[in-house]
Amino acid sequence: MEWTKFTERECDLFTTYCIMIGYLKNYKKNIGKNLKNFLMMHENGIVHSWRLKSEYDEFLNELKTKKLEIFEKILDKLKKQNERLKKFLECKKLDNFTDKQLLKIFTDFVNIYQNYFPLFTLPKYFGMVLNENDLSQAIKDKLREARGIADYEKIQKDFLPLFFQEIGKRKKIKSDLLFYALPDEIIDLLKDNKKIKENILGERKKLILFLTVNGGKTKILTGAKAKQILKSNIKEEKNQTDFIKGSVANKGLIKGRVRLILRESDLNNLDNKIVVAPMTSIKFTPYLKNVLGIVTNEGGIACHAAIISRELNIPCIVGTKNATKILQNNDLVELDANNGIVKIIERTK
């Protein structure tokens, strides 16, 4: 089996799992087809995911056959689902709720959360197979509105910590460890008081791997077994090159120093730098006003980096796959977003 790297980003484990389940189960209701193969690793707060190359290529080719009306309907669904998700931000004084009420809130939340992510990511996939000239201004406006609102980030910062703190207080478990629990485990804890072993959550915090093959049961592995499965499936990439190629998201030509962003804590000192990241998201936006350009591993014309670069009118290249592996902080590069090329002029010492 040949796997291709797809994402690398900072994300809590609970959300990581919800995203994966959403991809495996909830694409079909939107485009008629689910993904059946998934390899995902969560290590020290960073999630890495791979797709089976043959399935992923087939998936993108299928999207090319879809009419723009389907793309537009997905954007409309995303807007509605986002409104449903925002409702959970209204939950404040959770100590007033019984365990049964908390269970109802949580099961409703998980259902919406897992349905939300396929809708949020499908526009990005469509953007990888569509040409910007194919999109009407009405669709571009909907895209900007739908992808420009990412309330899941507020959920991660506001709702989940509050909810897990309440559960932790009631069930005598460290609330920060609940970010490494799976939805069903939390449901069992609330419903039947079935304890979650903190040592298991601690192991997951270090390293956990999820593997789903042909739509079968997802294997969950930690420690040495996880590393063994990863080593047997993923070949180590060689990144010795001074040349990076991707897709043009917004044209322009600029020279500047690299600012590598792998975690939210890296979002500082971005002015007059070329931002290089696995992807950008809404939380990047306040920091991007004075950057020279953007380069990402992921994305197409509908990703956040593409949208924000067009708004700021700065050069942007997306979908390089490996820019964060090749470039380092303070490398001097030429970002040629007329031709989709990044050239390293001077390596940092």
TrEMBL record:
The keyword Coiled coil applies. Pfam families: PEP-utilizers. Residues 272-340 form the PEP-utilising enzyme mobile domain. Transmembrane segments: none annotated. One of its GO terms (molecular function) is transferase activity, transferring phosphorus-containing groups. Keywords: Coiled coil. Residues 61-95 form a coiled coil. This is PEP-utilising enzyme mobile domain-containing protein. It comes from Candidatus Uhrbacteria bacterium RIFCSPLOWO2_01_FULL_47_25.
